[in-house]
Amino acid sequence: MQKSLLRSFQVDKACVYVYQSKRDTSKAAALEAASILRSALAKRGSARIIVGTADSQDDLIRVLVQAPGLDWSRMEVFHMDEHVGISAEHPASFRRWRKTLLDIVHPDKAHYMQGDAPDSSQECERYAALLHSAPIDICFIGFGENEHIAFN
């Protein structure tokens, strides 16, 4: 894996790693994430993860779900993105991502943003309270083809 690492550098507190391909980057990120999650499980007995739902996450998720030593039954997973005003069944709903991750690993808890909630402000408050109830161990955000970072 290290041979695909082209270079690394630091910007303030962020360590930046540049790999030869998206696939190599995804694999390295998934292996690092697995290490972070195993550490959280060992220290606290549980882990909390936020997962972006963009296609940019697919390779990472494929590697992560196969990583050894991750007890998903002790993890809480948060869905990161959703459109306002559409149901979970809508073809554009990001809640479909559960097929990529949640239906494979079956975490202890999974939280979704309810895009079709009658009061979106109240839904934001509900979700924020869940996020703030305990530390988050790791978050995967997506980078869009139009250079946006995350959907939100």
SSE map:
Layout: E1 5-11, E2 14-19, H1 22-44, E3 47-51, H2 58-64, E4 75-79, H3 102-105, E5 109-111, H4 120-132, E6 138-140
Parallel strand pairs: 3-4, 3-6, 4-5
Antiparallel strand pairs: 1-2
Any overview of this molecule?
Helix 1 packs across helix 2. It is built from 4 helices and 6 strands; from the N terminus they run ββαβαβαβαβ. It has a 4-stranded parallel beta sheet with strand order 5-4-3-6. A two-stranded antiparallel ribbon has the order 1-2. By secondary structure, the chain is an alpha/beta fold. It has helices at 22-44, 58-64, 102-105, 120-132, and strands at 5-11, 14-19, 47-51, 75-79, 109-111, 138-140.
In short:
The protein is α/β, with parallel strands linked by helices. Helix content is 31%, strand content 19%. It has a 4-stranded parallel sheet with strand order 5-4-3-6.
Q: What is the strand content?
A: 15-25%
Give the overall silhouette: globular
**Which residues form runs of ≥5 with pLDDT under 50?**
none
List SSEs in N-to-C order.
EEHEHEHEHE
User: Span between N and C termini?
Assistant: 32 Å
The secondary-structure class comes to alpha/beta
- What count of helical segments does DSSP give? 4
Mean pLDDT: 88
The percentage helix is 25-40%
Write a concise keyword list for the protein shown above:
single chain; 152 residues; alpha/beta; 4-stranded parallel β-sheet; 4 helices; 6 strands; 19% strand
